[in-house]
Amino acid sequence: MAKSKYSYNPHKLDFEKVKTNLTSVVLQIFGFLSASVVAGAVMVIAMYSFIDSPKERSLKRENEVYKSNVKELNDKVEELNTKLAELQDRDANIYRAIFEAEPINYAAIKPNKKSLASYEHLQNLNSREELVGLQEKVDLLTRLVRIQTLSFKELSRLAANKTQFLASIPAIQPVSNKTLKRMASGFGYRIHPVFKTHKFHSGIDFTAPTGTPIYATGNGRIETAENGNGYGNHVVVNHGFGYHSLYAHMSKIKVQVGKRVRRGELIGFVGNTGTSTAPHVHYEVIKGKNKVNPINYFFNDLTEEEYQAIRAIANREGQSFD
Description:
Mean pLDDT: 78
Oligomer: single chain
CATH superfamily of the largest domain: Glucose Permease (Domain IIA)
Low-confidence stretches: none
Strand content: 15-25%
């Protein structure tokens, strides 16, 4: 049997029995349940705000591991870039200098910017920019390694052909010049003998009597043997490895186009043909597409003292013979 409830009435100074009905009971139950739900919600929010769930704790641990791995990969990429830069420096300043090969312009090689679609798998990640940056570094490193590999293959081929290379590059004077008195005009700006203007002289002139033998300065193949332009009778030898040599103003040519010649082999005779004011041979060395100073290639038939003496003669200002 349910207990009766009483309340004190101060006006009557007596206890009165409390009357209850169904509505008040329902309201009391609803109020209690509402308060319980609100209290429960507050507790749940507090727990999720300040206390990680097992899944969240697992994800945070994975995120820390990921950050650590990304940093480690970045450090490894930087280390590889440093080592590759050392190889590039040796390649340009040692290996290619030895074989006189053109250096690779690594500074011109830029990252290959890919479209956003190429990194689609990274689009929804919070660290997308960091990952894309790392991917671009790896892509550039891959390109540089590929280029360096090709460079070493080329150097390996050049090393295998070193003997042929040394025999082919122009390395002696085109005429016998034991007394060093036959060099008349050097490489650089000189007075033109005909036009009397200050003009660039792209070779070296060796004076000698008509009929003096002219020799190939390195192994190669005769590319030109003709009479033409201001060179008169002239011969061009293709030495390979990017080198050519030219011999102009000959009185007579002794070789034909396509013939293989060796260093020191007779190719013609000194003359006075073309734009020339006296018997001599105008001699040029062409490396790639550039005419270079032949004085730097007389290292096979001169001592150090002779080389310094002939270099001083070549540097004298004066008039060229063509």
